[in-house]
Specification:
Elements: H1 2-26, H2 31-45, H3 53-64, H4 70-79, H5 81-99, H6 108-116, H7 120-160, H8 173-180, H9 189-198
Helix pairs in contact: 1-4, 2-3, 2-4, 2-7, 3-4, 5-7
Domain DUF2062: 21-159
Keywords: Membrane, Transmembrane, Transmembrane helix
Pfam families: DUF2062
């Protein structure tokens, strides 16, 4: 059963992540644009409120226009979804550290209070702290992801690009041709003299 689950996950991962990524790479997009778009999609995908990241990516694509690559942003946002859930608490604690506010207790009792509406003030404060933590960390995450992903995309684009790079032409093609295959001028002085003597 575990093997079947592993095979199912591998096929799902290939269909949802690997195949779309290969299609993006084969279109020959610039590595810098791909690295920036992937970093942006992951950074926005880590936004600590679930269900909002797709709208944030749509707004970013509309604002940035040609600077971003929309399919890459959305694919990276999709990849970042499981990471988003795991980083909510670190963003919360980071925001609490920045403001010096009290720690929101992550206990079953606190969860019951949230569900019954008894801890509404603490919940709003914790959401604010998580958003603040993400907002401060987002530029650092974006920059680090860009620096790490740019060399990877350079290699991947070179490997998967469908359009091969055009070969470099020599600067002076006439001189190279004359060196490689020298030709005599049509009317050289020796030929003219021979023709005159024959006549």
């Amino acid at each position: 059963m575990l093997t079947r689950f592993g095979l199912g996950f591998a096929s799902w991962f290939r269909r949802k992540v690997v195949d779309p990524l290969v299609q993006i790479l084969r279109r020959g997009t610039e590595p810098k644009q791909l690295a920036f778009s992937a970093s942006l999609g992951i950074t926005l995908g880590l936004f600590p409120i679930c269900g909002v990241t797709v709208f944030l990516c749509g707004i970013a694509i509309a604002v940035l226009g040609s600077l971003s690559h929309a399919p890459t942003v959305m694919l990276a946002n999709f990849i970042a979804t499981p990471i988003e859930l795991s980083l909510m608490v670190p963003f919360l604690r980071f925001g609490e550290f920045i403001t010096g506010g009290p720690h929101f207790p992550l206990t079953s009792d606190a969860f019951k209070k949230v569900l019954t509406g008894q801890a509404s003030k603490e919940v709003f404060r914790s959401i604010f702290h998580a958003l603040l933590g993400w907002l401060v960390a987002a530029p650092l995450i974006l920059g680090a992801l860009y620096l790490l992903s740019l060399p990877c995309f350079k290699i991947l684009v070179r490997k998967f690009s469908a359009v091969p790079p055009s070969p470099k032409k020599p600067l002076n093609s006439t001189s190279s041709n004359s060196i490689s295959s020298p030709r005599k001028p049509l009317n050289s002085p020796t030929e003219v003299r021979l023709k005159v003597r024959d006549v």
